[in-house]
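User: I'm curious whether this sequence folds into something compact or stays loose and floppy. Could you predict its structure so I can see for myself?
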Amino acid sequence: MKREIIQTSDGSTTIHLEEWNESYHSKHGAIQEAKHVFIKNGLSLFEGRAISILEIGFGTGLNAFISFLEASGLHQTIDYIGVEAYPVVSEELVSMNYVQELNAQNELAIFKKMHESAWNEKIVLSDFFTLTKRQQFFQDIDDIEQFDLIYFDAFGYRVQPELWSTEIFQKMYNALKTNGILVTYAARGVVKRSMQEVGFRVEKLAGPPGKREMFRAIK
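Assistant: Here's the prediction. I'll summarize afterward.
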């Protein structure tokens, strides 16, 4: 499948899959989307806490990197697990301009370490942030009550509906602690019904730039 690096509307880059006409992030702004969906409506709710995060679709590492940047200001200690079945290759990663666009030049070494570190091993990025990248199919996730927060950032329902099934959301529900939260950019009715079927209470929130709505689900 042909892949190309494109620039989104806020200046940040993403990877576009031509055959699917699908991108890793919103064309309206990769960084804007990440901050709105996963930080404002997810991470910020856990200010002042030690938390464990599961990301479904580690991809380019944007969500993990922004979470690292935000954690100190939110007085958080984060144990971050990013699941990805098909890791992004290094040639693509060097084309991502997140460090520059986030004015995080002082943390360039952290971004590089996130991607250069071994898969399936926990690494310490700072005294408040650990990262484990798991190369794993989403269908094989079997964690039980391990996470406070899930970033559900899989490819869209239009191209991979099987990743938005009741079966997958049952795994997400099982993986969360009681009162845990799942946030996603998605807002389709079929997705909401799958979430509700496994027991989630689903909230519809204002979406990021270019998207009217998004979901937050609570266990």
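Summary: Residues 29-218 form a domain with the Rossmann fold fold (CATH 3.40.50.150). The chain is about 25% helix and 30% strand.
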